[in-house]
Automatic annotation (TrEMBL):
Its cofactor is FAD. Gene3D superfamilies: FAD/NAD(P)-binding domain (3.50.50.60). It comes from the Bacteria. Keywords: FAD, Flavoprotein, Monooxygenase, Oxidoreductase. Belongs to the FAD-binding monooxygenase family. The keyword Protein biosynthesis does not apply. This is NAD(P)/FAD-dependent oxidoreductase. It comes from Actinomycetospora straminea. The keyword Cytoplasm does not apply.
Length: 495
């Protein structure tokens, strides 16, 4: 029995994989493809995470796809709404019929003679493809990151990580401590205090604070534009407005950090009770946007603090006790439930081993080309979104570039595209970003370079020009004609 061969394989049916598949459906209907999903559902993050309050921390008018705009005025949408949006998109473009669930790729091997990837999938026959798109995100799905927490085995209550949240967990009337200071923590704290099953008290325990910015749950400009203009005009205007805001906030933060820090401090202070110790609990040690800001819809976290239902404690853990946590200051936090919102475990390519002509790929030996390909690795594109803006902004751009690249290969009878590293370009860390999950794994990631196209712009405006307008046959990309062996094999597969 012959091995199935496809033009393109997309690994991952999350926000990135579904969006990329839609681009292929729309622009390259002559290319055969499949989406391989390790789990039994699409949606990635938005079907995996089920903790209370799960929502976007980017506005939906830029987190939504450019080709299928988010139609609601809601800016920070809840997880179920985002999942439904992804499902509807997959159905509308027929992508749902191309997803193969329960297909976890454990090894991807490139053969230069055959000009194809061979994918190993436990329980399935091997699958080959000419081009491989890694859309599996950047973190492990089976467990999150939990630091060493002294004495945690002594604790008599319940400990849960948000990534593995049990929907049946009963926290009504309980004392809950949420350990962490990122987006998940600031989402959980007010959410655990809502509704009939609310917790009695929620304490956010953080080692150091993050920037927390209150934004409207709905976008008034989007609402106004949608009332007065057709969607075909209103949606692009809203998206452009939000992109401009994102870029402006980031650039101003980078150039005038003291000014932005002052603005954020005053905004936070005005949202909290008089006399609140803002400098202890909401004044980070780093400059704005050196790490991602935490967005809270309509200031829900601040409202919970004002009511007295929620408390922020900035301290370090001495040890867990049978009934809670003893802090370095000597204070004890009593708890029935402890939530370890302590971050993600970084993982590239869904944990799959990548082999090129018999040699296992060592990511730190490679350099990232345009933040989407790797030096010396043929016919492979990966999706990594922005750290300072909506993830999907970069995904859409990369998908558009992939379409251009695949069309270039097809139209010119080419079989291989591989970026060749320039030895004169100096190395730099892959991400200039202070988040813990990045810093813990920075030595396991590729390098970036000190100049384009090896430097990650982290700027949508720059990338929009680079990925939409620049030539795919630049001085860095090496192309190889399609081999006779590959053409014969593909003809057999088609027949």
């Amino acid at each position: 029995m012959s091995t199935e061969h496809l033009d393109v394989v997309i690994v991952g049916a999350g926000l990135s994989g579904i969006g990329t598949a839609c681009h292929l459906e729309r622009e390259l209907p002559d290319h055969s493809y499949a989406v391989l999903e390790a789990r039994e559902d699409l949606g990635g993050t938005w079907s995996l995470f089920r903790y209370p309050g799960i929502r976007s921390d980017s506005d939906m008018h830029t987190l939504g796809y450019r080709f299928r705009p988010w139609s609601s005025a809601t800016a920070l949408a809840d997880g179920p709404s985002i999942l439904e949006y992804v499902r509807e998109t997959a159905q509308e473009f027929g992508v749902d019929e191309k997803i193969r669930y329960g297909h976890r790729v454990t090894r991807a091997s490139w053969d230069s003679d055959a000009q194809r990837w061979t994918l190993e999938i436990p329980g399935q026959a091997p699958l080959t493809c000419s081009f491989l798109l890694m859309c599996s995100g950047y973190y492990r799905y089976d467990h999150g990151y939990t630091p060493d927490l002294p004495g945690i085995d002594r604790f008599g209550g319940t400990v849960v990580h948000p990534q593995l949240w049990d929907p049946e967990l009963d926290y009504a009337g309980k004392r809950v401590v949420v350990i962490g200071s990122g987006a998940t923590a600031v989402t959980l704290v007010p959410a655990l205090l809502e509704g009939d099953g609310a917790a009695a008290k929620v304490t956010q325990l953080q080692r150091s604070p993050s920037y927390v910015l209150s934004i409207g749950r709905t976008d008034p400009v989007a609402a106004a534009l949608s009332r007065w203009l057709p969607r075909a005009v209103a949606d692009p205007l809203t998206r452009a407005k939000n992109i401009a805001q994102i870029i402006a906030l980031y650039q101003i933060s980078q150039r005038f950090p003291r000014f932005v820090r002052g603005l954020l401090r005053r905004a936070t202070q005005s949202s909290l009770p008089e006399g609140y110790d803002v400098d202890t609990h909401f004044n980070p040690r780093y400059d704005p946007w050196d790490q991602r800001m935490c967005m809270v819809p309509d200031g829900d976290l601040f409202r919970a603090i004002r009511r007295g239902d929620a408390e922020i404690v900035t301290d370090t853990i001495d040890t867990f006790t049978e009934t809670g946590i003893r802090l370095a200051s000597g204070r004890e936090l009593e708890a029935d439930i402890v939530v370890t919102a302590t971050g993600l475990t970084l993982q590239m390519f869904g944990g799959a081993e990548v082999v090129v002509d018999g040699e296992p790929l060592h990511l730190p030996d490679t350099m990232a080309y345009k933040g989407m390909m790797l030096s010396g690795v043929p016919n492979l594109v990966y999706m990594i979104g922005y750290t300072n803006a909506s993830w999907t902004l970069k995904v859409d751009l990369v998908a558009e570039y992939v379409v251009r690249l695949l069309r270039h290969l097809r139209d010119r009878g080419l079989g291989v595209a591989v970026p060749e590293r320039d030895p004169s370009v100096e190395e730099a860390p892959f991400l200039d970003f202070g988040a813990g999950y990045v810093q813990r794994s920075i030595d396991e990631l590729p390098k970036q370079g000190t100049r384009a196209p090896w430097r990650l712009a982290m700027n949508y405006a720059v990338d929009a020009v680079s990925l939409r307008r620049s030539r795919v046959d630049d001085e860095v990309m090496r192309f190889v004609p399609a081999s006779a062996a590959r053409v014969r094999a593909e003809d057999r597969a088609a027949g």
